[in-house]
Amino acid sequence: QVQLVESGGGLVQAGGSLRLSCAASGIIFSIPTMRWYRQGPGKQRELVAGITSGGITNYADSVKGRFTISRDGAKNAVYLQMNSLEPEDTAVYYCNANVISTMGRWLDAWGQGTLVTVSS
After folding, report:
1. Contact 62, 84 (CB under 8 A)
2. How many angstroms separate the CA atoms of 81 and 90, rounded?
3. What is the rounded CA–CA span in Å between residue 41 and residue 38?
4. pLDDT tens digits in sequence order for the chain, 120 residues long
5. 16 neighbors 118 (Cβ within 8 angstroms)
């Protein structure tokens, strides 16, 4: 199958920055799209940002201009650079990948989540 491993979460003061990383491994032929989601306390999971294999990106309105998503195709990795962090950004951040396996199957893979806490 496919595994996603995230890293980079932690505690930061408001106005600070963090960089999240996510690496995919397993029976991967290609990864058309990679995304970051988050789920704050008492909130539903929401899409933060996405990026295609061609580099097309999209962002939630709440993070535009502050967060940047990027990926390294050779490493099957996706990154989320988060600047000007606000307490409202506090959440568990999840990596998601739409994967085409080596057997030609479409798989939807999720990471275990990494906690980001922004103090005021």
Report:
1. no
2. 15
3. 10
4. 899 999 999 999 999 999 999 999 999 999 999 999 999 999 999 999 999 999 999 999 999 999 999 999 999 999 999 999 999 999 999 999 999 999 999 999 999 999 999 999
5. yes
Instruction: Tell how strand 10-13 and strand 114-119 pair up.
Output: parallel
Quickly count: other Cβ atoms within 10 Å of residue 111's Cβ: 22
Q: Which amino acid, one-letter code, is at 115?
A: L
For residue 76, give the amino acid letter: N
3-state secondary structure 61-87: HHHCCCEEEEEEHHHCEEEEEECCCCH
In the chain, the amino acid numbered 71 is: R
Residues 6+ apart with CB under 8 A from 81: 17, 19, 67, 68, 69, 70
